[in-house]
Amino acid sequence: MIIKAILWPIKKIILFPLKVLFYTTLLFIVSVLFFQYRANYDVDVSPLSVAEYENCLDVIDDYDVTIDLLSQYVDQLDSQQQSFLYSYLPDPFSVLTKPQEITEDDFRNVRTFLKNYLQAGRFPGIGGKALAPQAASLCRGGLS
């Protein structure tokens, strides 16, 4: 009984921050998915087929082709899309906004991220869209 009285506050103090972290993370994921699926992309964002995914991986492995296609993709975006991309892309991947300036070392660092990101474009999500609709759009529009 005394041990329970001693351990109960300790358990509550330790578990409370973990609960807050868990629920905050869960809420963040749900809100991202909610807004992501409400967006109208005006392009095909259905899950990638195996052939489309493998084609994108082949393109990503070739440095020159990837830089050329990413340059075309970024140039194709309107000013609002470009400003959104520039402001919300994490710093390690900001090199993607200026594909002509990417060195081979930067490219090697980003290539693994792109492969993993495109993998999320293969899985089905809600409403016939891919789990990561932007990844499916990038693969179809930017890397093909």
Task: Give me some keywords for this one.
144 residues; 0% strand; mainly alpha
Write the layout of secondary structure elements.
Layout: H1 2-38, H2 50-61, H3 63-76, H4 79-88, H5 104-119, H6 133-142
Helix pairs in contact: 2-5
Rg for CA atoms? 21 Å
H/E order of the elements? HHHHHH
Uncertain ranges: none
> Largest beta sheet, briefly?
none
| Number of strand segments | 0
Distance between the termini: 67 Å
Please state the structural category: mainly alpha
* Average predicted confidence as pLDDT: 81
Shape label:
elongated
Count the domains.
2
Helicity level: 55-70%
- Strand content of the residues, in percent? under 5%
- Please tally the helical runs, counting DSSP H or I stretches of 4 or more residues: 6
What does this structure look like?
The chain is mainly α and 144 residues long. It has two domains: 38 residues; 99 residues, no CATH class. The chain is 69% helix and 0% strand. The chain has six helices and no strands. Helix 2 runs antiparallel to helix 5. The longest helix is centred in the first third of the chain and has 37 residues. It is elongated. The termini are far apart.
